[in-house]
Amino acid sequence: MASESKLCSATHTARAAVIAALSLLVWLSACGQIITRPTATPMPPTSVPALTPAATQRPTSTPAPYTPEPTATPTVTPTPVIYAIRSGDTLLGIANRFGVSVAAIQESNGILDPRSLRVGQELIIPTAGDDTEAGAEPTATSTPLPYTIENIFFAETPLGGLWCFGEVVNRAGQPLEGVNLAISLLDADNQVLSRKEGAPVADLVDTNDRAPFALLFASAPASFASYLAEPLTAIPAYLGSYYRDLEVRADEGSGANFGIYQVSGQVFNVGPEDAVEVTLVVTLYDAVGRVMGVRRAEPEHNVIPRGGHTEFDIDLVPASGPVVSYRIIPQARRNHP
Questions:
Q1: Which of 31, 240, 267, 321 is packed most tightly, with the most Cβ within 10 A?
Q2: Rounded CA gap, 75 and 73, in Å?
Q3: Residue 328 phi, psi (nearest 5)
Q4: Do residues 332 and 204 make contact, with C-beta atoms less than 8 angstroms apart?
């Protein structure tokens, strides 16, 4: 029994040892095992196309067709040359001096017989463009000047100055205002010695009417060979500001040949309104119609009610004499409130 007991104990011990060894082996196996987690195989990236925004084309601005401003084309108005005939002048000599033909001068002045010319007579000298040869193609007719300058007369002053009297004649077919002109004194070579600009004494130059002017050359040359009369400006008159219903009555002129000349009379308002700023322009003429005296003056009253009248008495000193005739131009403004 004792041996069986020992055998059982040994068997039990051996069995226990085997179990322990197996346990240890299992434990060691467990401790020595390397557990490797499966590595996820990366999938190749799916290429996502970049979103490129569609380029939207900007609208092209279409500019409106450009119309350039019209270029101002100046209207060239021919300036007539007025030449006063001197002793010894001939049409051929005058034509050569100004570079035109004798026929052009005759045609411009209506001269049939050159022997009829006289000293002091004024000739219109045409421009070179007006001198068209026979057979040449006709050119466009230039716009005629709105007025001419006539009846010029020169008179020296006691202080060494020189007066130039004359008239502008309205040939525009409508009343004019803003009239300006120039007178140039020329030497024998047609070079300007002195020049003076001015305006007529009357503000309004009526249709087919005339208005006087008087220009003073305070420092005039000792002498001059000829002169040039140039129309400068003129515009259609605005008649709304003028009062034209005035009449001069019972007028008369008297005076010595070289003394004070007196013009007197009455001016009547024959229109429907009152006239204000009434003035009278008086012109004196010699035997050949040249202007030899000009004055603008007020009557006794410069406001004339409708249906009323006033007196005037105006003194002038003529540049020469004798005075053969005179002319009176009444002018006034409307009485606007």
A1: 267
A2: 6
A3: -120, 130
A4: no
Are residues 245 and 270 in contact, defined by beta-carbon separation less than 8 angstroms?
A: yes
Domains of the chain (ranges plus CATH)? 81-130+144-237 (3.10.350.10), 240-334 (2.60.40.10)
At 37-86, the pLDDT tens digits run: 444 444 544 444 444 444 444 444 444 443 344 444 444 445 568 888 88
How many whole angstroms separate alpha carbon 250 and alpha carbon 313? 12
Sign of the alpha-carbon dihedral angle for 124, 125, 127, 132: positive
Which residues contact residue 4 at a Cβ distance below 8 angstroms, ignoring those fewer than 6 apart? none
pLDDT tens-digit map of 27-37: 444 444 444 44
C-alpha distances out from residue 1 to 7, 15, 16, Å:
10, 20, 22
Task: Kindly give the pairing relationship between strand 246-255 and strand 291-297.
Answer: unpaired
pLDDT at residue 19, as a whole number: 54
Element (H, E) at 242: strand 242-243
For residue 244, give every residue at least 6 positions away whose Cβ sits within 8 Å of its Cβ, in sequence order, or none.
271, 332
Contacts of 261 (CB under 8 A, 6+ apart): 253, 254, 255, 284, 293, 315, 316, 317, 318, 323, 326
Please list the residues that pair with 252 across neighbouring strands: 264
Q: What is the DSSP letter of 205?
A: B
Strand, coil or helix: what is 188?
coil
